[in-house]
Amino acid sequence: MRGTLRVKAAGQAAAQPVVQVWKDPNCGCCHDWVEHLKADGFAVQTFDTGNTAMRRRLQMPERHGSCHTALVGGYVIEGHVPAREIRRLLAEKPQAIGLAVPGMPVGSPGMDGAVYGNRKDPHDVLLVLRDGNARVFQSYFR
49-98: per-residue pLDDT in tens? Predict the structure, then answer.
């Protein structure tokens, strides 16, 4: 199930893919990540059914897992990936499964803010290739 949202930007119509997110209904950091995406202009559809089954179905390797799984533009987004990197992925269109921020690093979108003491732990956004291997797509706080 994929959709597009038409948004007028600078006088022109632009197609913006909907981000579908599978998450636990009680997870605050997942909710905060969804809000991060919305604040960046993404349309988001959430499914509060957990993400483990969807991660497997979308073939994101477990070793790259996190607390929520998303699908946008045919790419899997696993964990607290910044909206900026999702936009870059959609623009560059690499041959890949998608992006992942394994675990839940403090300082990543949804794992940031005063509740975490404004701490920013170094972490990487990984480009997960079709063979399951990954390479660094972008590093943060290094």
Answer: 999 999 999 999 999 999 999 999 999 999 999 999 999 999 999 999 99
**Among residues 64, 40, 35, which one has the least CA distance to residue 52?**
64
pTM for the structure as a whole: 0.88
Between the CA of residue 32 and those of 38, 46, 71, what are the distances in Å?
Answer: 10, 12, 17
Q: Of 92, 101, 95, which Cα lies nearest the Cα of 138?
A: 101
Question: CA 47, CA 131: separation in Å to the nearest integer?
Answer: 27
**Residue 122: which region, alpha, beta or left (left: phi > 0; alpha: psi -120 to 50)?**
beta
d(C-alpha 137, C-alpha 50), whole Å? 26
Distances in whole angstroms, Cα of residue 43 to Cα of each of 1, 6, 26, 76, 120: 14, 10, 21, 16, 27
What number of other Cβ atoms are within 10 A of residue 91's Cβ? 7
